[in-house]
Structures are given as structure tokens and as C-alpha cells.
Model the fold of this input.
Amino acid sequence: MALMITDACINCDVCEPECPNQAISMGPEIYVIDPRRCTECVGHFDEPQCVQVCPVSCIPVNPEYVESRDQLQARYVQLQMEQRQQKKPAAA
Ligand code: SF4
Ligand code: SF4
Done:
């Protein structure tokens, strides 16, 4: 499952740099999580890093994105591949 940020967010900026998938960004009013990039930290850490650091506990599971651990693992692999492709130097 992807996680989501509720309107209890106080925009403290702490979670964004902790996300290994660059899934967190500033939205129109509060921080938001891109469900296409959130793996619940599967593949990187045992626990969701954003949840660990959030001082107001406003990052629950997103009920619209119910996924198995296998699906999250597959997304992790996909994101890693995309990242590697982006890092490749342009062909001369
Ligand atoms: Fe990023 Fe992990 Fe939080 Fe998902 S659970 S938004 S991957 S830090
Ligand atoms: Fe909002 Fe929590 Fe992230 Fe701070 S850590 S910006 S309160 S979601």
C-alpha cells in the first residue's frame, strides 16, 4: 500500500528528504505522496521512513492503494531501473 499525508501535516519539511523514492513533494497546501513512487519503503528499509520522522503522525495508509508486499517489491525494482536509466550518460 502507498501511504498518504493528511491535512494534519504542519509542513515541517522533515519527511521529504527521508524518502528513498522521491515520492514526497510539496503540494498546493501540504506535502503529498505520489502513490506511484511510494513502496512503503519496501526494498530500502524495514519501516516507512516518513512515518518514523513525522512529528504529528499524519501519514496513514492510503486506502485507495491497497497492494501486496510483492507488488511493492516489484515497484521498488521498477523505480531502481528507472533511476539507473536516468543516471546513464547520454550516448556520444
Ligand atoms: Fe517514501 Fe517510504 Fe514514505 Fe513511501 S513510506 S512516501 S517510500 S518514505
Ligand atoms: Fe507533514 Fe509529517 Fe512530512 Fe512534517 S513530516 S511535512 S508534518 S507529513
The first helix runs from residue 49 to 53. The helical segments are 49-53, 69-87.
